[in-house]
Amino acid sequence: MKGNIYLAAVIYTLGYLPFAVSLCLLGALLLTLLRFWYSHKWFLGVSLFLFILSIYLSPQTTAPSEENTLPEEYAGPAIIKSHPITKEFYTEFEVELSNQQMVLIRQQKVEQNAIKHGAVCLTEMSIEQVNQATNPGQFDYRSFLNHQGIQGIAYDATIEECVGSSFVSPLYEYRDRLLEQIDDVFSPNTSMWMKALLFGERSNFDDQLMETFQFWNLSHLLAISGLHVGLLLALSYAVLYFGFRISKESAMNILLVSIPVYIVLAGSQPSVIRAGLMAVLVILVTKLKMTVKLLDVLAIIYIISLVFDPYLFYQLSFQFSFLVTCSLILSKQIITTDGWLWTSIKISLISQLALLPLQFYHFYYTNVLSFLLNLLFVPYFTVFMLPVLITLLLLQLLHTPFAVLLEKLFIWINQPMMDALFGLEQFSIAQWIVGKPSILVIGIYYVIFLIMMAMWNRGKLRFAAVFAIALIGCWWMQQALPYMDNAYRITMLDVGQGDSFVIELPRRSGVLMVDAGEEVVYSHLDQSNRNTKNIIQPFLWSKGITQIDALLISHFDYDHVAGGKEIMDSFKPKGLFIAERQDLEPITRYFGDKYQPIHLMHGHRLQFGGGTIEVIAPKTNRSSGSENNHSLVFILEVDGHRTLFAGDLEEPGERRILQRNLPPIDLLKVAHHGSKTSTSEAFIREVGVDVKNALISVGEDNTFNHPSQVVIKRLEDHGIKVWRTDTHGAVEMIYKNGQSTFSPFTP
After folding, report:
1. For the chain, what is the mean pLDDT?
2. Among 293, 525, 554, 732, which residue has the fewest nearby CB atoms (within 10 Å)?
3. β-strand pairing of 431-433 with 365-367
4. How far apart are CA 266 and CA 172, in angstroms?
């Protein structure tokens, strides 16, 4: 069975899929390898047992039932399931309630060693259900927590009478003391790197550093991986064997005991667990003088990890770690046939090709120049950073003055390297934004990838090159799909109490955006582009959109325009359009002097690909003191379908535009978030004759009590279906072949 245990790992993975899909794939796998299974019946039995075990253990079958819903209030015993992690403003840890549900607790203040891993405490808490994502492409925090087995969050719970602790609790407490000691001995910059690369503690990293490493696809260097563990074990083995003259057998025994300890000290991250357990198996195999292939070792570790923690499957670090390790093991013959430089190039290339579909699926882009930076920074971290930091750690435990001297060398070399990285301009050309690929495209990619690697491994370089081009072709095909789609789309994004609409014309002949509002909530001064960065940009990237043709700003209220400059900077619209106005101060306030907007007023017509915009208002450049009634109002017509965008127009403004013989309207963007000062009865009687659907962008539980129930009833009385972001999340209208369909993002 040597080299085939990966089949059992594949079958175990099927248990995480929907039951019908997993059965179909299992049947296909069994039929494809029928002769193999027939000659290895016992292995077939073990694999099928693992499949059943996976179905039983996978979170989709172990999730709480509807009858066992998460309580809003809880008073009773709870088990501390994770060691407390202290962040800038709070400390958080996980607890298990008496009904076996998991809750994340965040406390503003926690006394040192008051909360111990494994302790049973009496608790009182108010539990909140985490909000789910309401826009396509948006990070879904609820899903993120659920995939860790966490059903809710409690803030500042009452915790008392804690009893006991787990056997690993002393290790966690020692880890805390060690991290404090590192802070006391070394400068903040050095301690930041040491804690991150040796103990998995990255809370001290600032946003600029994280964003820079993410942009250049270097984030893997900030997480403890097999490289870190391998170097640490190699150094430890060398010290034991050559320094203390301990026998090989005794040195391996010490390492076997030390590895689980280090896994805990390093924060029990998925990549550390994988690397640590793999090292344990390799040492055991060596001690027992067995011959086991590395791929089999990896498959065994994969299955064991998921049996003990089924939620690991959903963690990206777990997926990335195993996928890259598996790819490199399968490519061993390719990698080890050349010198150091070519070996480094091949490792970097194979790793990035293996991860590319996951990067596009989760982040929608990759960095095409990161390949070059990995060639520089991977050796730098391997040869310099990690060995020096490990040495610093040992020296500060043995002789602090020597550690301080070595730290000066570390800072002298490392600081210029980091400054050089930060100084690199983040070229937009380096970002290849493809969008969120379909599962079909991902499947095709991996089939081609495996064929390419097989050809390369056999030395058939010409065939491998052809399949390499086909690999890139998968993503070109993904990018080309929108240009073959005849549908016309309007997406009303859920940006809270604000407005933002994205319009995709047929065959991607144009992409327009109406408003880029930010919600005035809590401290918007600290997150001035919250909607732009967390909602609008991820949505556009998930669609593979890197440039828009026009940004139309209805008026200069914060909830409609605040993200406009960020959109102009990031997506380079060919035109910025606003309502004709005399007062230019708001333009400077929101856009500075960099962009010169095009002023529009009644009578102007614009053509974008397959769409035409007819401007209805304003008719004058004077706002008359009301920004709302000076909104840019226009009709967008595509293939005979007309949508009226009314900005924040109020009743006086509505009366003015009713005098202009409007054509029949199919879809209405309701003005002013459904306020009672807009969408009057007279306006609906005139405009709403042919309207069947209306869109209202409004924040959930907003302080303005929008939308007005009077307006909602008025629309419904005229037979108009109302779609609103506070109840439906983002709403997409798709118009094709004379028919329009509406798809809310949340049911």
Report:
1. 88
2. 525
3. antiparallel
4. 9
- 164 touches 120 (CB < 8 A): yes
Burial 139-175 (b: 16+ CB within 10 A, else e): ebebeebbbbbbbbbbeebebeebeebbebbebbbeb
Report the alpha-carbon distance of residue 493 to residue 589 in Å, rounded. Answer: 24
pLDDT score, position 260: 87
Reported pTM: 0.90
**CA nearest to 662, candidates 614, 619, 599:** 614
- The token pair at 131 is 């909000």
3-state SS assignment for residue 55? helix
Closest Cα partner for 511 from 541, 489, 486? 489
Residue 422 to residue 363: CA distance in whole angstroms: 21
Closest CA to 674 of 624, 720, 636, 634: 720
Whether residue 720 contacts residue 668, with contact meaning beta carbons closer than 8 Å, is answered with yes
pLDDT tens per residue across span 423-452: 776 666 778 999 999 988 999 999 999 999
With b for 16 or more beta-carbon neighbours within 10 A and e for fewer, the 449-475 pattern comes to bebbbebbeeeeeeebeebbebbeebb
> Cα separation of 296 and 280, whole Å?
14
Cα dihedral: 186, 189, 191, 192 (round 10) = 170
Return the structure tokens found at 662: 């409007």
Helix pair angle (294-308, 5-14), 10° resolution: 30
Quote the distance between the C-alpha of residue 116 and its chain's center: 31
Whether the CB-CB separation of 629 and 652 falls below 8 Å is answered with yes
How far apart CA 477 and CA 473 sit, in angstroms, is: 6
Give strand pairing partners of 93: 105
What pLDDT, in 10s, does the model give residues 698-732?
Answer: 999 898 999 999 999 999 999 999 999 999 999 99
> How many Å apart are CA 697 and CA 706, to the nearest integer?
9
Put the strands of the sheet holding 575-579 in their side by side order.
598-600, 575-579, 550-552, 511-514, 501-504, 488-492, 731-736, 739-744
Rounded distance between C-alpha atoms, residue 300 and residue 283, angstroms:
14
Tens-digit pLDDT profile for residues 600-636 = 999 999 999 989 999 998 988 776 667 899 899 999 9
Among 538, 447, 446, smallest CA distance to 491 is for 538
What angle (nearest 5°) sits at the alpha carbon of residue 264, between those of residues 261 and 269? Answer: 135
pLDDT in tens, 323-370: 888 888 888 888 776 677 788 888 888 888 999 999 999 999 998 888
Question: What letter does residue 736 receive in the DSSP assignment?
Answer: E
* Bridging pattern class, strands 102-107 and 120-128: unpaired
Residue 480 has pLDDT above 70, yes or no: yes
Which residue carries 């061993």 as its tokens?
332
